[in-house]
Amino acid sequence: MLYSLARPLLFSMAPERAHDLTLSILKSAHKMGFIRQKIDAKPVTCMGIEFPNPVGLAAGLDKNGAYIDALAALGFGFIEIGTITPRPQAGNPQPRLFRIPEAKAIINRMGFNNDGVDQLVENVKASKFKGILGINIGKNADTPVENAVDDYLICLEKVYNYASYITVNISSPNTKNLRSLQSGDALTELLDTLKQRQLELAEHYHHYVPLVLKVAPDLSREDIDFIAAQLITFKIDGLIVTNTTLSRDGVENLAFGNEAGGLSGAPVFEKSTACLRQFAEVLNGQIPLIGVGGITQGEHAVAKKEAGATLVQIYSGLIYTGPELVKQCVSALT
């Protein structure tokens, strides 16, 4: 209710300014004890972890882990922060975030803007959150793609002891050549190297942190078959389906619809759910799936589950609907 009243004011601002202001207000309100959305649900076990409910926050909203406690108070079953890179980077030039309200859509070309992995770790250590925390890792923009595995290793090692699970993001369209890591020898080398290091870290820290891959919706059936085979070969623990799309279906004739970047929100729902369904068919239960993309109402979360997802994540829908969307999705799923 409160968000529906505040949204017109927030939407009158530049999107990135509104984003920062909303998070700042949320953090202050949480500190004063004003935010507490309690959601009762049956726990869900996935990747060997018991999630209090199946609805999580997707990466991208809290890139540096600076708002974990406040976001957790909205009732999410899990929070995913990042994408984080080894070194701080400014990301792409502004403006780089665009709302398309007529389609409940967002286009972003943020470019992994973040304060670096060391600052994220400090923020996680300072938080009081004891729930399920995913940390999403990537590569710096100026790291050649042929050396990308080095950046992922740095992040994996630094966040390992602070994450409930770690997501390997190779599907953002806003870092040059990043999506090339989704295919061929590049994917094989990346997964092989990260899996070996994961097992070494598990032995060192005496606890196992699941490794998850996040893929794009813009994949052919051949791509899906190849990725699925690699996930099984290297015993990757989970798959997030999907990131944003390069397609402009549904927004091509709307203001900002042809801006460069990844499209999220309602227009990506069908495409991402179809991709999820195809992965579910190929993997046949061997690897758990997390469905994300275009969830703007509870029925969409149910559709993701029916397509094969054990858990779901929301982000863009939250911008248009507000925290009530978390409750709607949990209620629909349980």
TrEMBL record:
PROSITE patterns: DHODEHASE_1. It comes from the Bacteria. Its cofactor is FMN. Its main location: membrane. It is a peripheral membrane protein. NCBIfam families: PRK05286.1-1, PRK05286.1-2, PRK05286.1-4, PRK05286.2-5, pyrD_sub2. Monomer. Residues 44-331 form the Dihydroorotate dehydrogenase catalytic domain. CDD domains: DHOD_2_like (cd04738). Its EC number is 1.3.5.2. This is Dihydroorotate dehydrogenase (quinone). Keywords: Cell membrane, Flavoprotein, FMN, Membrane, Oxidoreductase, Pyrimidine biosynthesis. The keyword Ribonucleoprotein does not apply. Belongs to the dihydroorotate dehydrogenase family. Type 2 subfamily. Substrate binds at K63, N108, R109, M110, G111, F112, N169, N174, N243, T244. It catalyses: (S)-dihydroorotate + a quinone = orotate + a quinol. The active site is at S172. Pathway: Pyrimidine metabolism; UMP biosynthesis via de novo pathway; orotate from (S)-dihydroorotate (quinone route): step 1/1. Catalyzes the conversion of dihydroorotate to orotate with quinone as electron acceptor. FMN binds at A59, G60, L61, D62, K63, T83, N136, N169, K214, T242, G265, G294, Y315, S316. InterPro entries: Aldolase_TIM, DHO_dehydrogenase, Dihydroorotate_DH_1_2, Dihydroorotate_DH_2, Dihydroorotate_DH_cat, Dihydroorotate_DH_CS. It is found in: Cell membrane; Membrane. Binds 1 FMN per subunit.
